[in-house]
TrEMBL record:
Function: As part of the exocyst, may play a role in regulated exocytosis of insulin granules.
Protein name (record): Exocyst complex component 3-like protein
Provenance organism: Pan paniscus
Keywords: Cytoplasmic vesicle, Exocytosis
Cellular localization per UniProt: Cytoplasmic vesicle, Secretory vesicle
PANTHER family per record: EXOCYST COMPLEX COMPONENT 3-LIKE PROTEIN, EXOCYST COMPLEX COMPONENT SEC6-RELATED
Amino acid sequence: MDSAAKDEMQPALSPGPEWPEQERAEQLARGAALKWASGIFYRPEQLARLGQYRSREVQRTCSLESRLKSVVQSYLEGVQTGVWQLARAIEVVQGTREALSQARGLLQGMSQALQTLEPLRERVAQHKQLQALSHLLPRLRAVPAAVSHTQTLIDGQQFLEAYVSLRELEQLREDTWAPLGGLELPVFQGLDLLFEALGQAVEAAAGAAGKLAREDPALLVAAVRVAEVETGRTTPLGQVPRDWRQRCLRALQEGLERAHFGSPLLPAPGALPGWLEALRVALPVELATAEALVAPCCPPQYNVVQLWAHTLHSGLRRSLQNLLAGPELEAADAFTLLHWALHVYLGQEMMGSLELGPEADVSQLEPLLTLENIEQLEATFVANIQASVSQWLQNALDGEVAEWGREQGPNTDPSGSYYSPMPAIVLQILEENIRVASLVSESLQQRVHGMALSELGIFLRSFSDALIRFSRDHFRGKSMAPHYVPYLLAALNHKSALSSSVSVLQLDGAPSGALAPVEAALDELQRRIYRLVLETLQAELQPLFADLPSRQWLSSPELLESVCERTGRFCRDFWRVRNPTVQLLLAEAERAVVLQYLSALMQGRLVCRGADERTQAAERLRHDAAQLQQLFLSLGLEENAHCAPVLLALRELLNLRDPALLGLEVAGLRQQFPDVSEDHVSALLGLRGDLSREQHLAALSSLQAALPPSPRASRRVLFSLVPAPALAPASCLPSGSCARALLLAE
């Protein structure tokens, strides 16, 4: 297809500028020219000057064209210069390419030539090595002998000479490395092992530093100097640095621990005190040796004394931890370890000695025993001691109980009082354990104190139970005790001795009520002994009071004389009880006799038949009261503790001739004895035998209208312990007294 055909196939393109901005600029220029021309030639007279305007515009146009030509010419010259420079650059690049191509060809030729010279290069290197070896050959021939000599020096502990020889051998090996290209000759293969042998020898010497400092300090100094020089030396490239200083320090520590704590066997039971005593003597000596002998042999940066103290402390602490992780210690071993660790170790006998410098201070280190260790040891000690104390107290009680059935009465002291060493033994056991615990720590003392009070309470309860069994067996006839009552009285003295001395168990600063449980147990023991003694007295008097009151009682004093005689015989040994317990015992005995007397009066066995018998009964009451008072005064009872005056008050109820005044007497009786009841008063009024039901009720009603008890009224329990007289059950109402109910029923 020809060009004409191609032109026909192309779409028609509208003529126009290459840039839209050019077309717009031309339009703006034409518009501005037209606007200017219309303004200039608007008036006809200005058309005459058209030629001038034309010539001016022609000049301006020529000026613009001239300037445009100049700019275009300058631009064309710059383009021509750039084109020329590009042509020159192309020529230079082409030349450089040709030169590089030639150089590449030359290099390829030289590479082939070098390959042909490679065997020659190897031969040259071998020649250089042989030349170097030929120069070093005399020295290399001496290497085996030098190695053997060095080994001999090491075996002979000549460390400095051995180290110098090794350094020479090592220098010779370094001299052969460069010529041989880093190749090591077989003759030097044992050199590293020889260095290690010297290091081990130096380490062994450091491990025996204490012994060497005393026997051969020069050897220790030589070992330390070798270690220091080797540590400070710059090692050749590729060789691991030998830090012999750290090896020496480790050896010092390990040797020290091995000397004192190296045995894997822990102290056997009972051998711990000897082991700790040996450490108490050895450790200060070791520190003194370190300060006086070892430290001068070592550099100052070794801090020998501090290293010694810390190493001994750490080794001892580890040994104690292993000891506590094993079988549980006995009480003596636990106490010894606590006292030694808390007091002896840091005391002036050991680490706190004034002869040791401040470098040996271990007070800032971890304590030998942790709080858990101390808690474990204290618990172990208290548990074991508690078992021992319990057994000791039980043995003391068993020994005391064994004496109760013997034919001989209780032992007495020089004053005649019943005496037994048991209370002193009990308190001494407890006090001694508390005192010993105070030597360790306040916490252990408080633990043992609590244990002692607990065991004392258990002992008192066991003592009380033993007395009950003793009394039961005695009355049942299983084992009749020849001196039953004296041993009960001796038990009262035991209680008194314990009460008077139990204050020794009171700790300083302890709360005032710490001994309250023990004091309560002592009071309970005393009441139980009183009850056992009085039960025996009542059992002896009960047959005598079976005939009181009676006609025989009204006419003869023999009945009460028998009571007083038997009571006096029963109480004849009461003086062997120490004060103030004897006063309390006599008071309880006198009250027991009076209570039996009152109980017999209220049984209704006697009703007076007339005024004469009432007078006779009143006189008997007065006489009996005087007789009982006289009896207990002779036994040593203080007068203000007597209960017998109650019989004088009852005497007035019988002696009163006018029944209408009985209400006053009954009210007066209530004021003196607030615990008297209507049943008691009714039974007493029944003795008179002359009261009607109305008079009886009137007298009883005066109890309700009685004034409050007098401040001086007896506060001792009396009538409430007297059984009320038994009345017919059908006569008792659900509420109110049986006496009033019976009278109302009638």
